[in-house]
Automatic annotation (TrEMBL):
Name of the protein in its database record: Dihydroorotate dehydrogenase
Entry similarity comment: Belongs to the dihydroorotate dehydrogenase family. Type 1 subfamily.
Annotated pathway: Pyrimidine metabolism; UMP biosynthesis via de novo pathway; orotate from (S)-dihydroorotate (NAD(+) route): step 1/1
Organism: Vagococcus teuberi
Subunit structure: Heterotetramer of 2 PyrK and 2 PyrD type B subunits.
Gene: pyrD
Cell compartment(s), UniProt: Cytoplasm
Pfam families noted in UniProt: DHO_dh
BP GO terms, sorted: 'de novo' pyrimidine nucleobase biosynthetic process; 'de novo' UMP biosynthetic process
UniProt EC number: 1.3.-.-
Cofactor binding notes: Binds 1 FMN per subunit.
Secretion signal, residue range per the UniProt entry: none
Entry keywords, A to Z: Cytoplasm, Flavoprotein, FMN, NAD, Oxidoreductase, Pyrimidine biosynthesis
Enzyme type, top EC level: oxidoreductase
């Protein structure tokens, strides 16, 4: 193993950096800039049982240190993803984490049962926290009981490890994290976006056609760090941390909060090379901080809690 490699359920990562779901599509656009095999993994865009057109436009708005989006899980649907998008990624030496969303428990089960059949899909990220859809999404992620029920349902049919993507839009995230762990989750990914809104001064209406959207980008990093720190002290399953990562210092900070791998979201829009840059810069930052390996850092952070 190299000093950057990480082993977590279903995933042997050559390095801990991956693009977050929703900010990388299915990789086609970014493959024009660099070899996707350089990435630790790819969290592809959410897949639902049937095709979704998403929300009306405008669906994106800039904010200081971030952005609002209300895409609404637009995607071509399970069968098209299985036939086209996932096979197109097989030429890259990189594991795929398939983000799965739905409106009902049966929707989730239908996708979870099938999507792991793709040879490059090594894990599922169960999206129970999207704030931009009327049915499902965040409704599943704000109740510990419902989140646990959905986790158990996904685990009953999935043939790859299941990670649960938690919502920050709750009073306390720890009971939900503990509930999904007890229901059999193999890991947690966090955080999804924070619900936000902007209002146009001239029209006096919301900038987004959906009314509200999910806030992401560097502005939410302190919230993500706090929540990852809380959850890492409450559960034993690994956490893939995300939320405002834009520098190699942010990557290390995610680890010190308790993450086992790190996903990069909004910064992919600002700098399409951000993921390979972070991978290249990580060894020298580790040298500077006296970190021998990522696995050693994970053990040290866990040991400091005991």
């Amino acid at each position: 193993m190299s000093r950057l490699s990480v082993s977590i359920p279903g995933l042997e990562l050559k390095n801990p950096i991956m693009p977050a779901s929703g900010c990388f599509g299915f990789g086609d656009e970014y493959a024009k800039y660099y070899d996707l095999s350089k990435l630790g993994a790819i969290m592809v865009k959410a897949t639902t049982a049937d095709m979704r057109y998403g929300n009306p436009t405008p669906r994106v708005a800039e904010t200081p240190s971030g952005m609002l989006n209300a895409i609404g899980l637009q995607n071509p649907g399970l069968e098209t993803v299985m036939a086209n998008q996932l096979p197109s990624l097989e030429k890259y030496d990189v594991p795929i984490i398939a983000n799965v969303a739905g409106s009902t428990v049966d929707d989730y089960k239908r996708v979870c049962e099938r999507i792991g059949d793709a040879p490059n899909v090594k894990a599922i990220e169960l999206n129970i926290s999207c704030p931009n859809v009327k049915d499902g999404g965040i409704a599943f992620g704000t109740s510990a009981e419902v989140a646990a029920e959905l986790t158990a349902a996904a685990k009953s049919v999935a043939n790859v490890p299941v990670y649960i993507k938690l919502s920050p839009n709750v009073t306390s995230i720890v009971p939900i994290a503990k509930a999904v762990e007890e229901a059999g989750a193999d890991g947690i990914t966090m955080i999804n976006t924070l619900v936000g809104m902007r209002i146009d001064l001239k029209t006096r209406k919301s900038v987004l056609a959906n009314g509200t959207g999910g806030l992401s980008g560097p502005g939410i990093k302190p919230v993500a760090i706090r929540m990852i720190h809380e959850v890492s002290h409450a559960v034993d399953i690994p956490i893939i941390g995300m939320g405002g990562v834009s520098t190699v210092d942010d990557v290390i900070e995610m680890y010190l909060a308790g993450a086992s791998a790190v996903a990069v979201g909004t910064m992919n829009f600002t700098d399409p090379y951000i993921c390979p840059k972070l991978i290249d810069e990580l060894p020298s930052k580790m040298d500077e901080l006296g970190i021998e390996s990522i696995e050693q850092l994970i053990r040290e952070v866990k040991g400091a809690r005991q």
